[in-house]
Specification:
With 474 residues, this protein is mostly helical. The chain is built from 23 helices and no strands. The protein has helices spanning 3-6, 8-11, 25-32, 34-42, 46-53, 57-60, 62-85, 87-107, 111-124, 128-143, 149-177, 180-184, 186-200, 209-215, 221-239, 246-265, 273-277, 280-309, 315-336, 343-359, 369-397, 403-428, 435-458.
Length: 474
């Protein structure tokens, strides 16, 4: 199925104002790939960057974690600003920042300047996804098309394709002109987003009463700052969860308590905790997103490290073995993307996820290559189902007037899962990526996948998501 076929649902005429405005698709997709392409290209640049700056791996790793931190904090904060000021202003500002960050990266005289450029990239790339989800909701209100499943699938496929192509593209750029080019490529990407956004994204005045109502509310800057402080302290602890870093948990608890007190007392909070607490289906979706990406990231990095150390394969061979996983994820998303029902996807995804993680218990240093390729392909199935299903669930469950911040918070839970996965890999691979370490990691992932299955079965509201004329209880 082609991406154009995925859009057919959105082209159908609707009673209220025609079909989905297809001019929005190009800026939405180009903006959404900025984050994954920067993450994927960097994977092959860490060693040359460390060599150029004479920096140890512990410092070079901040190029990854800096982007994670900025994105996890930035997505819901910028999403809230999208709810108030509309997607156009935040999309253009964010994508312009991507270009500036790219230039800083090209000219960086020191590793820590390069890390700053990655943090700026994280904030800049945080605007496109909340803006896209806001646009989907506003187009749904305008046209009467309640479930833009094709467009959501296209966004997901674009991100998956870019994640696959990122490492080889990064390798080509480094070979052509050094690691600086993986930062320079952000400049033309930024320009493309700015042109498309300026031409096609609607101005705030054209978005109707819901935006006007949101703009009348005061921006909760203090709440945003306390949220950022809480999340940053927690994520820094997750990066290295050790007893000696207990003070980060104390800071997290203190900032979190102050954040909760403030949000419950003011009239226009950054995150309306009372409304959020009254929406169990949405909270369950955030929880599933966290669990899904613990498994996804821990498998991806844990399995790939074991292929190189425990199975003694070259990095290029390990990469080729993982290609079927990405291909399976893309194929499953394309095949199921137009179906907006989510419960079946999550049930199948969780069961296959358990099976795929359990298969890791059977591998060893002599396991045939074909068996390893098959395991990767099996894990690609839940990767294609779970993320898209959670995205569709959020679209149906979130308050339409806060779609931007709700979508941003979904990405925050994704990055929390990624950091928890990183901590799990570090814990089981203390002595290297051994087979025993992989088996221990597999038992953990089977347990996490089982919790994901239980959470899916227990959530009765999922039966109504995506079914015509039915919405989940809020």
């Amino acid at each position: 199925m082609t991406i154009s076929a995925l859009f057919r649902t959105s082209r159908r005429p609707a009673a209220a104002g025609g079909g989905f405005d297809r001019r929005l698709i190009a800026p939405m997709i180009l903006g959404s790939v900025l984050n994954p392409i920067n993450s994927a290209m960097l994977a092959v640049a860490l060693i040359p960057i460390g060599q150029d700056f004479g920096a140890p791996p512990s410092e070079v790793a901040w190029l990854i974690t800096g982007l994670y931190l900025a994105t996890a904090v930035g997505q819901p904060v910028i999403g809230r600003l999208v709810d108030s000021f509309g997607p156009r202003l935040l999309y253009l500002s964010g994508t312009a920042l991507v270009g500036v960050a790219g230039l800083i990266g090209v000219l960086a005289p020191h590793l820590w300047v390069l890390i700053v450029s990655r943090i700026l990239l994280g904030f800049g790339t945080s605007a496109a996804y909340p803006a896209s989800m806001f646009l989907l909701r506003s187009e749904s209100d305008r046209t009467g098309l309640r479930s833009p499943g094709g467009v959501l699938a296209a966004l997901s496929i674009s991100n998956q394709v870019v994640s696959v192509l990122g490492p080889p593209l990064g390798g080509l750029l480094i070979g052509a002109g050094g690691w600086h080019l993986i930062f320079a490529v952000n400049v033309p990407l930024s320009v493309g987003c700015l042109v498309l956004g300026w031409l096609f994204l609607p101005r705030a005045a054209a978005l109707g009463g819901s935006l006007a109502a949101a703009r009348s509310e005061r921006i909760d800057v203090a709440g945003m700052a306390l949220f950022a402080a809480t999340l940053t302290a927690f994520m820094l602890f997750l990066m290295e969860p050790q007893l000696s870093r207990w003070w980060l948990l104390v800071l997290c608890a203190a900032f979190g308590a102050a954040f909760a007190v403030r949000e419950l007392r003011i009239a226009s909070p950054f995150l309306d905790l009372r409304v959020l607490a009254g929406n169990p289906p949405l909270l369950a979706t955030y929880g599933r997103q966290f669990l899904a990406f613990i498994t996804s990231y821990a498998f991806l990095f844990g399995f790939s490290q074991w292929l190189e150390e425990g199975r003694s394969l070259s990095p290029s061979a390990a990469g080729l073995i993982l290609l079927p996983m990405s291909a399976a994820a893309i194929a499953v998303t394309a095949a199921t993307g137009r179906r907006t029902e989510v419960r079946g996807k999550l049930l199948v995804g969780s069961l296959v996820q358990i099976a795929g993680c359990a298969l890791l218990l059977l591998v060893g240093p002599q396991t045939p290559i074909g068996w390893l390729v098959a395991i990767g392909a099996v894990i690609g199935v839940p990767q294609g189902l779970n993320g898209l299903a959670n995205q569709n669930a959020l679209y149906a469950q979130a308050d339409p007037t806060r779609m931007g911040s709700a979508a941003g918070l979904l990405r925050t839970f994704m990055y929390l899962g990624a950091l928890a996965a990183s901590a799990a890999n570090a814990a089981f691979y203390r002595d290297g990526a051994t087979t025993d370490g992989l088996h221990g990691l597999a038992w953990l992932l089977v347990s996490v996948a089982a919790v994901f299955l239980v959470a899916t079965v227990a959530d009765r509201s999922l039966r109504r998501v995506g079914r015509t004329g039915k919405e989940p209880a809020r």
